[in-house]
Amino acid sequence: MSHPNAALITRFYQAFQQLDAEAMARCYSDDVQFSDPVFTDLRGTDAGDMWRMLCAKAQGFSLTFDGVAADDFSGKARWIATYTFSQTGNQVVNHIEANFRFRDGKICEHRDHFDLWRWAAQALGFKGRLLGWTPFVQNAIRQQAGKGLAAFQKSR
Could you say which architecture CATH assigns to the domain 4-113? Predict the structure, then answer.
């Protein structure tokens, strides 16, 4: 029998496979902290809204996950998201390592790790391959994503 927190991680990714952002958000504590190389510090409802935005905009999306493990305090998983990046029409296959912390049966901290340069090369094409490693381009990606999230939240 798996640990309840491993089941929580599994439920989170099964919801993501179905693009069910509401079910994903229900796995989070109200004060969750999320970070990845693009969204470096989202807290509370901003984290759920990021998933709502990504699920709403998903094109050509599929997700696989494995390596789910958890105990009373922490957990981890590996997942691969495949999708069409809407701004360029390029296909992205993003390999992500996720780490979690739990409190009261919910995810209170979620940290995703992936190679932003590799992502930029796929999503942005030649420009991303050539310049995606630079802080300037990586910061521009973060700023654009932040603006997209703010616009999504304003439109809700």
Answer: Roll (3.10)
